[in-house]
């Protein structure tokens, strides 16, 4: 199951953020079927939003507490994504591809009011807006627990996103530029590749 995780990184430096991500990757293999898909970070508010595949929200919370990583609300979400054939799909498998342009780690994130739309209506609306490649829309995450959609756009400025959101006919709750972080972006001390550690070696890692 795919989950969204809210994280408060108030007071964290870039080094602190990388260290937290490094610790997260170290113990990912301790939890059955857990996988870090991607994260987004807003430097202005110092808030993060992560997307994990996991068997339960309790596993995600235990993972965060074990590695001393901030963790707030955890909710199940469903991914909406364009396909290579030009269709729009909802559900699994989760799209884990890196679709960023070289050197560009930012994305525009639009929070949209879901307004109790059925899945078929939601797919129809997202089919009406231009998707990448060629368009600004990349993927979205449907959070029915709070009736919101977390939509990811790649665009040069805010106006392009606002124009792209229009045909959806959904109320725009918030629009901000955030930094996208993928597991392959994270390196250990000295730039070393991150490798999972054995559970017996975990003592002291979170300190």
What can you tell me about this protein's structure?
There is one protein chain. With 207 residues, the chain is an alpha+beta fold. The chain has 2 domains: 2-76 and 182-187, Alpha-Beta Plaits (2-Layer Sandwich), CATH 3.30.70; 79-178, Alpha-Beta Plaits (2-Layer Sandwich), CATH 3.30.70.920. Helix content is 19%, strand content 31%. It has helices spanning 14-26, 57-66, 119-127, 158-165, and strands at residues 2-8, 35-42, 47-53, 74-76, 78-82, 88-90, 106-113, 137-143, 148-153, 172-181. A 10-stranded antiparallel sheet has the order 4-1-3-2-10-7-9-8-5-6, covered by helices on one side. Strand 5 and strand 6 (88-90) form a beta hairpin. The longest helix has 13 residues, at 14-26.
What does the secondary structure layout of this molecule look like, with pairings?
Layout: E1 2-8, H1 14-26, E2 35-42, E3 47-53, H2 57-66, E4 74-76, E5 78-82, E6 88-90, E7 106-113, H3 119-127, E8 137-143, E9 148-153, H4 158-165, E10 172-181
Antiparallel strand pairs: 1-3, 1-4, 2-3, 2-10, 5-6, 5-8, 7-9, 7-10, 8-9
Brief digest:
It is built from four helices and ten strands.
Strand order of the largest sheet: 4-1-3-2-10-7-9-8-5-6
Mean pLDDT: 87
SS content category: alpha+beta
CATH architecture of the largest domain: 2-Layer Sandwich
**Helix count, DSSP H or I runs of 4 or more residues:** 4
CATH class of the largest domain: Alpha Beta
Radius of gyration: 17 Å
Approximate strand percentage: 25-35%
Total beta-strand segments: 10
Overall spatial form? globular
Distance between the termini: 30 Å
Main sheet characteristics: 10 strands, antiparallel
Overall domain count: 2
Give me the CATH superfamily of the largest domain: Lrp/AsnC effector binding domain/regulation of amino acid metabolism (RAM) domain
Helix content: 10-25%
Task: Report the order of strands and helices.
Answer: EHEEHEEEEHEEHE
Uncertain runs are: 197-207
Say what the CATH topology of the largest domain is. Answer: Alpha-Beta Plaits
